[in-house]
Write a structure and sequence with these properties.
The protein is mainly β and about 150 residues long. It has no helices and 10 strands. It has strands at about 20-25, 35, 45, 60-65, 75, 90, 100-105, 115-120, 125-130, 135-140. A two-stranded antiparallel sheet has the order 1-2. Strand 1 (about 20-25) and strand 2 (about 35) form a beta hairpin. The chain is rod-shaped. The chain starts with about 20 loop residues before the first strand and ends in a 10-residue tail after the last strand.
């Protein structure tokens, strides 16, 4: 059956919204609804455009996951993007195990990634200890035969 008979009020004509940047709200038997834009958010924020819209709920910019999280779970977003995929994991200077090769010259914030700096070398006969997180550590003498600690 190529055609089906429709009763009055049994079909809805809704606006066609761009599924990548808009959502339809309020389509019913009485109205075609409205297309709401999912606007861009500034640095450090994203907009969850997949959240269903309601009469009282519009999309708001939310902060990228950062505050109160463990160091390896913090994210930042320096650009202007729309969705949560713009929130990137912060760089872990020195890695998860803090290998003593790099420290944070500038810590990661919700708007900027960490800036890593190589731990400075020490004079002959000394080694660097404590180079991790946001501290470049200091040089100490352990023994003239020791050139590094692994």
């Amino acid at each position: 059956q190529p055609f089906q008979e429709l009763q009055a009020g049994s079909a809805r004509l809704c606006k066609t919204c761009n599924p990548m940047t808009q959502a339809l709200y309020g389509c019913s038997d009485l109205t075609t609804g409205e297309c709401f834009d999912c606007d861009w958010c500034g640095p450090g924020e994203f907009r969850n455009c997949s959240t269903p819209l309601t009469q009282d709920q519009r999309w708001e910019c939310e902060a990228c996951p950062h505050e109160g999280l463990p160091r390896e779970e913090k994210t930042y977003k320096s650009g202007i993007e729309r969705d949560r995929s713009g929130c990137k994991l912060c760089n872990l200077c020195g890695g998860v195990d803090q290998d003593g090769l790099f420290y944070e010259q500038h810590p990661c914030t919700v708007k900027d990634d960490a800036i890593c700096q190589r731990c400075p070398p020490c004079a002959k006969g000394t080694i660097r200890v404590g180079c991790a997180l946001s501290t470049k550590g200091y040089c100490v003498v352990i023994s003239s035969e020791v050139s590094s600690i692994i």
